[in-house]
Specification:
By secondary structure, the chain is of the alpha/beta class. The chain has 10 helices and 7 strands. Strands 1-6-5-2-4 form a 5-stranded parallel beta sheet.
Length: about 190
């Protein structure tokens, strides 16, 4: 008999145990399609966070236990909040996300195109904009406020556990794929593994 954890956050060891005990446990990866294509846990399903909200009720209706995965845990936490708000139970977040899964030697499927994880893309974009603002301020003193704006945005991002820059970056073609058929994923999530 499968013992479902009582906490919303589960460890890598708990996920491994759950998967071995219950083939109906579903892993829902909420990273962008590009990140998912680059690397993902075998048997996981991809519904990017930016599209999850409009399908939250359908996803909440999945009868099987669901483990949410993203790169580090932040997007999975946001997905968790959306799904709990519409009534999903038996819902868990993989502690540390894909970064921890890979670091622990978890099995992964790698695609042909490696894309940067969203947190790395955000760090690169924020750092580049801030650096450009500082450099530009040597000629145009008011440009220093560009760096200040980035700093304020990052501070707000940390305080609210949201990231407007990640939301914008996730819409770039680099992060998009043609492979996410949410209706198909929901049908697959509902199937029994038996």
């Amino acid at each position: 008999m499968t013992t479902i954890p009582t906490t919303d956050t589960i460890t890598i060891a708990e996920l491994r145990r759950l998967r071995s005990e219950d083939p109906d446990v579903r892993i829902l990866d909420v990273r962008t399609g590009g990140e998912f294509e680059s690397v993902h846990i075998p048997g996981s399903y991809n519904v990017p966070l930016d599209t999850l909200g409009e399908h939250a009720r359908d996803l909440a209706a999945v009868d099987h236990p669901v483990v949410l995965v993203c790169q580090s845990g932040n997007r999975a936490t946001q997905a968790h909040d959306k799904l709990v708000a519409v009534g999903k139970d038996a819902l868990h977040i993989l502690e540390g996300g894909m970064a921890s899964w890979e670091a622990a030697g978890g099995e992964v499927i790698r695609g042909d195109n490696e894309r940067w994880a969203m947190d790395r893309q955000v760090r690169f974009a924020a750092g580049s904009i801030a650096l450009a603002g500082v450099v530009a301020s040597t000629v145009v003193p008011g440009a220093k406020w560009i760096a200040g704006g980035v700093a304020a945005g990052l501070t707000y991002s940390a305080a609210s556990n949201t990231c407007a820059m990640a939301a914008v970056l996730s819409k770039l073609p680099y992060n998009q794929t043609d492979t996410c058929d949410v209706a198909g994923v929901i049908q697959q999530l509902q199937r029994s593994a038996v």
